[in-house]
Amino acid sequence: MGTNDKITMEHGAGGQSMQDLIGKMILGNITNRSAGTVGLDDLDDGATISLPDDMLGSSELVITTDSHVVDPLFFPGGDIGRLSVCGTINDLSVMGAIPLALTCAIIVREGFETASFERIMRSVDLASKEAGVPIVTGDTKTIQGDKLDSMIINTTGIGIASPVVRDNGLSPEDVIIITGNMGDHGIALLSHREGFDFETKLVSDVSPLNDLLRETLQFRAFEGNNAISAMKDPTRGGLASCINEIAQKSNVGIIIEEDSIPISEPVVAACEMLGLDPLEIANEGKAIIGVRPEYAQDVLDMLHSHKYGKNAAIVGKAVPEHRGKVLLRTSIGSLRQLPVPVGDPIPRVC
Amino acid sequence: MSDESDLLTKINKVSLPIRIMHVCGTHERTISRYGMRDVLPSEIEVLSGPGCPVCVTTEREIDIAIELAMSGVILTSFGDMMRVPGSRGSLMEARSQGADVRMVYSIDDAITIAEKNPKSKVVFFAIGFETTAPINAAAILRGLPENFSLFVSHKLTPPAVLALIDEINIDAFIAPGHVCTIVGIHPYQQFADMGFPVVAAGFEAKDVLLSISMILEQMMSGDTIVENGYPRAVRNEGNTRAQEMMEQVFDISDAQWRGLGTIKGSGLSIRNEFADHDAALIFEDIIDKQVRDVSYDNVDTSLCRCANILKGREKPNDCALFGKRCTPETPVGSCMVSQEGMCHNWYRYRGL
User: Fold this and answer.
1) What percent of chain A has pLDDT over 70?
2) Is A343 on the interface with B (CB under 8 A)?
3) Contact (Cβ atoms closer than 8 angstroms) between residue A288 and residue A167
4) pLDDT at A349 > cutoff 90
5) How far apart are CA A126 and CA B94, in angstroms?
């Protein structure tokens, strides 16, 4: 991007435009960017902070932050409060960390209804209780009504991991598991916002994954091997964006079997109607897990026994060829690339 | 799944060298997303004609829409038009520069915006083929708020195919299912009469495979006709009520197609009795200035092969710009701009 260009919505949409903005404008200007083994350069879900050996033993401190904006603030299955707690807990969890505490910083416009504010805070509390992660500090700012539509919530979380699970650790032969149906959050939000009336009610999947993923971590150090080689949560940009990032950072190829990807019927139907690809739609309660093949079935069984992992499925595997690329075997048997989405999914006209 | 494999087996059995053109962006998306070209026999080529309304909307029309938005009008548009570049950027870029551009899903959403903003002028950028035109016609006939108008860029597919027929290198057509639900299959009879098999098709993988299989049967029998391969949605005579509404509201006019130039009788314009809601008249000054001041002759698309691609004479890989200077984020030609364009889909869903 040149110096005369302006920020567009695309720059925050999780696609190529956002990657360009981060690469050139952010990493290109911030020079002090590491405090442990995982730093800003890694563009992982969070970072680690190294402490003296006698303080944490072999564990590492993990930190992550996320600012949440969502339109509408209340949607089927959740609201901005639940979203902002779950989003940060999930970013910690996919790094293999046990979340310890969250901060909660709120920017709200003047004129915002206090009843809605309170409803959102109760929702923050419920999610925090469900996950067992306290909110320990925060900040509140108000802004003039013409400068902000409604509300922004930033949450920062810290946790401890031993060891940290990265998004670059996938090796050839590793199996790819996703923990449930793809596309629920984005489609529920879109259809609620635009008033599309689908026959079945679509509900966001927004939920804290720390309990589900903590269970998988017991497989980490099996016989001295790390059974879990990579984890990531497919939020904006969906599975397509997330799995490509894992392939690129791990420098392996990944082959995904389209028929094995769990997607609910209403999401398939809505995507068909709107010309959207469910693999590019955001999720807020799902993880993608890379597992050494000998542990894949055990991990899958464990996921199936948890309420947030009932629809978990093995969807593909890493291969030594096609490094950095993701290929999709379609339901008619062809093999094509699964591309990184360009920006936010836009429904078609005709 | 078994439907698709059965059809593929059948197609493989009766395969012959053939070039089939579809004229619908949604067909291209289905074909590309399923990687259909990789599993069809290589002698069966499926190519994309002028079937994506977003792709064929001209740079001038987009520039005018941006000018309208910059002049203080609330400009409402379908989402897939937002990223398409005119000669100086897209509607999305205009929005980030302060223009009031809003994405809508239908003309009804745009009318609601007009009702909520009675002091502003609201313009709906009305693009699309015979599928969106009757919906807009119905809205006009129902009556519109005073502050609401349409900037019409509707186009008709059969006249465009007819205009290209001498230049194209094609043996058969897949007719667009959505368009046929409105116009029926009769407008495609002329192509069957010229010796082209034509099959109207739906949009799932099995629908497209079925239409290919039906085309191959016609080729073998030697009888070329228009067949309805999508009877669960298409009636042969189409939707006559929708056709009547289009006739009541629109005149057929010449239209400019991005990459193809002016094609006679291939567009729609609002009839005089609805002039109060015709943005082309209401904002004549802004539009005239745009037409007068901006030349489109020097836009550097000399290497772009879109015109030949839309005619089925070349494929995206034949273009020197494809995937290099011309990508979905920096499109040069019309086929790369929309998610339903042939180049866009070939780029996004390319094989190995």
Assistant:
1) 93
2) yes
3) no
4) no
5) 41
Test the B interface: residue of A332, A340, A342, A346 with most B CBs within 10 Å: A332
Inter-residue contact B283 to B68 (CB < 8 Å): yes
Average pLDDT over residues B254-260: 88
Q: What percent of chain A has pLDDT over 90?
A: 71
The DSSP element (H or E) to which B32 belongs, if any, is: helix B25-33
Evaluate whether the domain defined by B1-294 bears CATH number 3.40.50.11740: yes
Task: Give dist(CA A12, CA A90) in Å, integer.
Answer: 19
Asked if A68 contacts A80 with a C-beta cutoff of 8 angstroms, the reply is yes
Q: Where are the beta strands (DSSP E) in chain A?
A: 47-49, 60-68, 74-75, 78-79, 97-109, 135-143, 151-161, 175-178, 228-232, 253-257, 288-291, 313-319, 326-329, 335-337
Q: Is B285 left (phi over 0), alpha (psi -120 to 50) or beta?
A: alpha
Q: How far apart are CA A137 and CA B107, in angstroms?
A: 47
- Interface size, chain A vs chain B, as Cβ–Cβ contacts under 8 Å: 108
A349, B348: Cβ pair inside 8 Å? Answer: no
Residue of B nearest to A279 (CA): B33
Report chain A residues whose CB lies below 8 A from the CB of B32. Answer: 336
CA dihedral of residues A290, A292, A298, A300 (deg, nearest 10): 20
First-to-last C-alpha distance (Å) of chain A: 32
Q: Which CATH superfamily is domain A46-161 in?
A: PurM-like, N-terminal domain (3.30.1330.10)
- Collect all residues of chain A within an 8 Å Cβ-Cβ radius of residue B83: 10, 342-343, 346
Backbone angle region of A142, left / alpha / beta, with phi > 0 → left and psi within -120 to 50 → alpha: beta
Residues B81 and B79: their CA atoms lie apart, in Å, by: 5
Complex ipTM more than 0.85, yes or no? no
Residues of A in contact with B34 (CB under 8 A): 330-332, 334
Interface of A with B in 196-225 (CB under 8 A): 196
What's the helix, strand, coil split of chain B in %, to 5? 45, 20, 35
Nearest to A330 among B5, B34, B80 (CB): B34
Q: Which residues contact A222 (CB under 8 A, 6 or more apart)?
A: A295
- Closest CB to A349: pick one of B78, B83, B92: B78
Each residue's pLDDT tens digit, B153-181 = 999 999 999 988 888 889 999 999 999 99
For domain A175-337, the question of CATH label 3.50.50.60 is answered with no
For residue B235, how many other CB atoms are within 10 A of its CB? Answer: 13
DSSP secondary structure string, A182-240?
A: SSHHHHHHHHHHHT---SSPP-------HHHHHHHHTTTTGGGS-SEEEEE---TTHHH
pLDDT bracket for residue B297 (50, 70, 90): low
Q: Where are the domains of chain B?
A: 1-294, 306-343
CA-based nearest distance A329→chain B, Å: 9
DSSP string of B104-166, one letter each residue:
ESSHHHHHHHHHH-TTS-EEEEEEESTTTHHHHHHHHHH---TTEEEEEEEB-HHHHHHHHTT
Helices (H), B167-319: 177-183, 189-193, 205-221, 240-249, 279-282, 284-293, 306-310
User: Beta strand pairing status for A313-319 and A175-178?
Assistant: antiparallel
Q: Domain residues of chain A, as ranges?
A: 1-32, 46-161, 175-337
The answer for B195, left when phi > 0, alpha when psi is -120 to 50, beta otherwise, is left
